[in-house]
Design brief:
eight-stranded parallel sheet; TIM Barrel
Length: 209
Amino acid sequence: MSKSNLYIKEACVESLEQAISAEKNGADRIELCSHLELDGLTPSEELVGLVQEKLTIPIKVMIRPRAGDFIYSEEEIRKMIKSIEFCKSLEMEGVVFGALHEDKTLDLNLISKLAKIAKPLKVTIHKAIDETEDILKAVKDLSHIAEIDTILTSGGANTAEEGAFQIKQMIGISQNRLEIMPAGKITPANLKELHKIIGAKAYHGRRIV
């Protein structure tokens, strides 16, 4: 946890240099992706191995085979499983994924299947949840899947600041069963104020440190 012991700062990075810099600047945890301009895709196995070798803080790995929606084909699901199994073989901290149906509800069957495969790694459901129509119901549904640890969210808004009220409600509903981790334009300039409003245990951002 950060030096203040108030909350974890999770830095979203896409290269070895960014990962090393984030740790040096006080990040407590890393989410490793590729192509952040596409909101983050699965990084290469080579990069995952390199970052794990160089860092001492926990690393979560994005599992997202392509940009666009979160409705996956059988072939894409096989790729996701292969990526999860690779992360397990390296004993990473965790993996990050999400899946939706055509109607923008969570694909709970697929999420549950992937979460079971991922264990004992920690499982984070990413901001696909922000596309659902009833985000509070989505939190309740995810809380019934024992293998899920964290939900990454902007509360259905563009930024954590705009979604703060909804994020607080999500934290209330999760009743400490899940870590609700705010994301969306969080920086050192607004993090303390946001924490006063939201009171989460962890925060996520590209420029959080």
